[in-house]
Amino acid sequence: METALLPKVQLRELTPNDAEDRFIWSLDKEVTKHLNMPDKYPPFSRDETQKWIEMCIAKSNGYEQKAIMTEDGVHIGWVDLKNIDRLNRHAELGIAIGDKRYWGKGYGLSAMKQMLIWGFKELELNKIWLRVESDNQKAIKSYKKIGYIEEGILREDRLRNGEFVDRLRMSILKSEFFSK
Ligand SMILES: CC(C)(COP(=O)(O)OP(=O)(O)OC[C@H]1O[C@@H](n2cnc3c(N)ncnc32)[C@H](O)[C@@H]1OP(=O)(O)O)[C@@H](O)C(=O)NCCC(=O)NCCS
After folding, report:
1. 127, 171 in Cβ contact below 8 A?
2. Pocket around ligand 1: residues whose beta carbon is below 6 Å from it?
């Protein structure tokens, strides 16, 4: 992947103050449409969001979640690794740019690239996989750009607005990522 021109982002640890942005982003149905969230509006209350952030900070939910910051210090989203299988050295990636003004500018790619480097180097993973709804073309395009390969279709894997939708399972290996 050509990354020389990607906008710079910083991944930092979450803080309790991140909860408000996260709650605001959760009110935007375009942002949450393809995220694994409950079918109600808003998907989480302010209080639930605060508790979730605190769980992430305490790492009591198995997530390694980081806040995505622009070079100018704007908080624009989050990226995480979960289902971390240390025995087999793989984990599942999730990402969202919650502030839509930053969509389609390379921020998602930049954040994902940093998380992949961190996961492969610091967590010593061999494979980083993900699940993406098969109609989330925007995300699939980004994943392919970074080098993710389709592993298969998870049939009717998500119940979204009362309808079961397929998800693709995609992955990238450490050797593939660092050979680019
Ligand atoms: C999916 C998501 C993370 C992608 O992030 P993004 O920042 O919007 O997208 P990317 O980083 O891939 O940006 C690439 C796009 O920016 C454009 N771009 C503009 N400037 C760029 C630059 N300097 N470098 C790279 N790409 C640039 C590319 O041409 C590309 O546009 P295209 O898709 O029209 O070809 C984001 O849209 C999102 O959070 N969506 C909602 C939540 C979601 O669906 N999450 C995934 C669940 S599986």
Report:
1. yes
2. 5-7, 31, 34-35, 95-97, 103-109, 132, 136, 138-139, 141-142
